Model the fold of this input.
Amino acid sequence: MATSPFKLNLHELPRRAGDFKDFQLDFLAPESIGNPMIAIPVKTQLLINLRAESASDGVLISGTISSKAVGECGRCLDPIETVVNQNFQELFFYENRAGEDEEFMMEGDIADLEIPVRDAVILALPINPICREDCQGLCSGCGEKWENLPADHEHELIDPRWQGLSEWKSDPRFGR
Done:
């Protein structure tokens, strides 16, 4: 049975409030983390530097996630790459101290960081990533990049409701 690389064993951390220990997790992402437009791909290095600090009810974990996300521009569909460097902080309650509605609870000495890490990465990534601020996107008529088209580029747009009548002008049955 494979164990998750997101699980942190805090056995060596004393349970006295204020005691802390620094950790560094360095592993390949077992799954993609992000959204359909941009994400940290599977098997991309994730580096998580963190501090676990004992508190009266659990362990406060603060850290920084570093990695690389790839995706495509939401305007022109070119590939993009961005550095992820996101902070996170979460309190993991001891099993005997957690209430029913506590989201993060330790399992013995183990804190599972997967959800806090995923949440932090997803919040750090843009919803609609762009390759650069002045990206003009694609022409909706032909799909070419606007930056590669002449300044006077345009398409005759016909309302689809009138499409049938556009053929009427050139039909010889109607005297033209």
